[in-house]
Request: fold
Amino acid sequence: MQHALQQTFSAIAANDKSDPINDCPASVLALLPSHPDPLIALAHSKLHTFSFASVPLCWRRLYTDASIAKAIALIEHGLAHLDGHDPRPANSKRKRSEDPDQSLSSGPSGEAWIDEAVKVLDMAAIMAGAAGREAIIEQLLSGLQSYLKDKEPPQAKRQRVEKSWDSFPIAPNMELSKIPVIQYPIQSATAPSMRAFETHMKTAQPLLIKEALDHWPAVHERPWSSPAYLLDQTLGGRRLIPVEIGRSYTDDDWGQSIITFKDFMQR
Reply:
């Protein structure tokens, strides 16, 4: 992974003259290799100065590239903590005093640096639209996904999956006595052919279609009904998602929040 990190950092550092990030002040760009945090804060303030459609592309690109630089530093630092050595090349522009807080590579699970790296990369996608770095961000997230899968022994993974939910609860708060009785059953059909469906359409009557989606990969191969699968595909639920809070955006208590996928599933 270390070689891939160095290549990724070189890719964002080697900008040609047409790169929109060059519209940012040169003094700002000089800080990119060693001080990504203040650049993220600067770009963040610029994102909120304009409407999103009017934000100059250079600031969206700066937010994205600074986030990538910070994520790379976090991953390098986390791996170095595990291996007990400094992974940076001798000519690295990042000094040890400028590396991320060492507490990020410790903690109860020893994976806080992964949490933070995923958060930083997802925020770049959410806040700045990844600004031309979609492939690089996806590559870094895929690398973290592979790292998590490779480091977990098969037995531990099997036990984790067995302890997790097999499926989402259905109406957990609904009492059976309150389920309404169906007085007028709707006609049903099991995976009808197109001809049969067109024939029924002429009756102008409702139809309950069963088993028509059984061939979908989301049902069996990549089961969206399985919390364990969804957590596995979101780096253990670390991926960030924007959610709307409230019944309607016209209500006073309506709002938006960015939370992890795991927190979203637990609500």
The mean pLDDT is 84.
